[in-house]
Design goal:
The chain has 244 residues and is α/β, with parallel strands linked by helices. The protein is built from eight helices and twelve strands. It is globular, with a radius of gyration of 17 Å.
Amino acid sequence: MNRRQLLRATTALGATGALAGTAVGTATASEPTGPLRVHVVMFDGVEELDFAAPYEVLSGAGFFTPRPIEVRYVSATGARGVTAAYGTAVRGIRPWAPEEADLLVVPGGGYARRDSPGVWAEIDRGTLPRALAAAVRPGLTVSALCTGVMLLSAAGLTEGRPCTTHHKAKPDLARQGGLVKNARVVDDGDLVTAGGITSGLDLALWLVRRELGADTATNLEEMLEYEARGTVWTSARIGRGPRR
């Protein structure tokens, strides 16, 4: 166990120890027994915080739930490495396999730079939007944050659906048929979207709360020293109302 893992594990033990009578290591009969499989989509020009925050949050959730969590970076173009918006090189990216995922998380980046790597370049190339459109199936939740939502729009996944994105891209999202909501996170069942950059923390914490329960999410917030902020808009048709 490296120093970072040891620090996180120690913090996790402190948080769980405060919950008297909570059995962390035993799943009940009603809980899923298979792993929660999360694929974070990568491409050249992706924003660093957009992909790192959800990866950290969703990976860290594993300290507070008996359900295994598997988080990986994936690419629809076959790339084994990408260069992010500020020059960070990310290696070891896994092949595209949405049939093996429960959650897809699509970050943004590069939307303000039409002639640079990023969301616009991926929209113009078409490979990633086509792959996202083809990935949709029962049992898969597609989520995105910041201008990654514009990749979902290019894939036709936000048309007529409640959604949100980075504030500067909201007019484009609305013009392309998205039903834009003034919320930090918008949950429409199998489509979950979030606002700009730092909203990736709140998107991931909401997904943890939704998929793994409130105790897991609140313990994770304590470990991260971050409390989820903003409004989570949830669709009435999935049995939840707006939550602040």
